[in-house]
Amino acid sequence: MAYILLAEDDQFLSDGLSRTLRHSGHKIDSAKNGVDAEAAVFSNAYDLVILDIGLPQRDGLTVLENLRKVGKSLPVLILTARDTPEDRIHGLDLGANDYLCKPFNVGELEARIRALLRKDKWANQTAIKVGSLTLDTLANRFSIEDQPIDLSAREYLVLELMLQRRGRVVFKNDLIEHLSSLERDMSSNALDIVIHRLRKKIEHSGCAIQTVKGLGFIIE
Question: Which domains, from first to last, does the chain contain?
Answer without folding.
Answer: 3-122 (3.40.50.2300), 127-219 (1.10.10.10)
